[in-house]
Design goal:
Two copies of one chain form a homodimer. By secondary structure, chain A is α/β, with parallel strands linked by helices. Helices cover 39% and strands 22% of the residues of chain A. Chain A has one domain: NAD(P)-binding Rossmann-like Domain (Rossmann fold), CATH 3.40.50.720. In chain A, a hairpin with a 2-residue loop joins strand 6 and strand 7.
């Protein structure tokens, strides 16, 4: 499988790239507006994985591309960009998407106020709804990977032992992303229903940040449903 | 400590009553609009606890009262009522509250739609904000015990091993409720900041219901932050 990580030079892209890079044989296409930065990031991720496995970074299928080229070549397109770049990123890559692809949205809209972070979705009601609105109708949209601390994902020596919630209106696409998530060691994927349930899932991201801020011994928090 | 469970004949009241009844020596005042129903519930809860511990139900400090009388006598007043009864319940008991008491809100506003349950707070922005608005200014309000499946609380033979989030603007009051929560075996209390963070905590309740509905092996879900 070819997985594009758009905005893949950021911390969510890094975390997913090194986990899939280590735990699977999928081709990882790190995307950026600047292909040179994408190639540098891809090289660094391959070195991180090789350092963990003792392998050769040149044997790893982690390469850098423009966002457009990454999306065009991949079957799974992860929008690892901040919420305010979701709309323009999808617009940039839309021509390269088709009905056999899946667009994956891990972003949550947040704002910071005196109490900490709060959920602040775009006018569409959720980031996932915005992605759905911007993505060609035939291409399924799935939400996943919101509630994973990027720093923890990127630290390959730390076992995960946490859950991610996967939601969407197209069952096949949801199942593909559930399987892809569970190929990461220590990550359990749970279904959370349709795109209409996006706000409750996206709200977990500011909640996890607040709980980490308010409790001394906790950081890079994940969540486990039990 | 005396703890009033207003609307304590419902399932959240039952769960908290039997857990505190078994794991602590606090006096539990089960409140209802109908004192006869409150007394019947209190008797049943004492029997549940005694059946678990092998003790005598008559030795347990679990008694039934009107909501007004329970709130008047207690230092901790838990609003174990549905969100749409929060305002009138607080109004009924307000005269019996003072600055040394703590009002605790575990409720979340939800509605059901085609995708499952979604967060649907009152016009104040959260149930906690509504409780704050209705409660005399001098009396601290704390949110807690939202994300506990009532059926799991009530099943005393099931170990909990889950977390509850506690939030509020008065640090002393939050600390009292954190301690009270952690007196329940297997329950860890984590701080989630001020009342302004209520929506993200209350949103967990419909999320847990959705995740339980969508995944075959999960029910009566709780959450663990890790």
């Amino acid at each position: 499988m070819r997985i594009a990580l758009l905005g893949g030079t950021g911390d969510v892209g890094e975390g997913l790239a090194v986990r899939w890079g280590r735990d699977t044989d999928h081709e990882l296409l790190v995307g950026s507006r600047d292909p040179e930065r994408a190639r540098e990031a891809a090289t660094a991720y391959a070195e991180t994985v090789a350092a963990d496995t003792g392998g050769d970074p040149d044997d790893l299928a982690i390469k850098g591309f423009t966002n457009e080229m990454a999306a065009d070549r991949a079957e799974i397109v992860v929008l690892a960009v901040p919420p305010y770049h979701v709309a323009d990123t999808v617009e940039t890559v839309a021509d390269g998407l088709d009905a056999d692809d899946v667009v994956v949205t891990p972003a949550a809209g947040m704002q910071r106020d005196e109490d900490g972070f709060s959920y602040h979705p775009p006018g569409t009601g959720s980031v996932a709804a915005l992605v759905r609105e911007e993505t060609p109708d035939a291409v399924p949209v799935v939400g996943a990977f919101h509630n994973l601390a990027a720093g923890r994902l990127a630290a390959l020596d730390a076992p995960l032992g946490i859950d991610t919630l996967v939601f969407g209106d197209a069952d096949d696409a949801v199942s593909r992303i559930v399987r892809l998530a569970e190929e990461i060691d220590g990550l359990r994927a749970l279904r959370a229903g349709g795109l209409g349930n996006a706000p409750e899932v996206e709200s977990l991201t500011p909640l996890l940040i607040n709980v980490a801020r308010e409790n001394d011994d906790l950081h890079d928090l994940g969540v486990r449903f039990d």
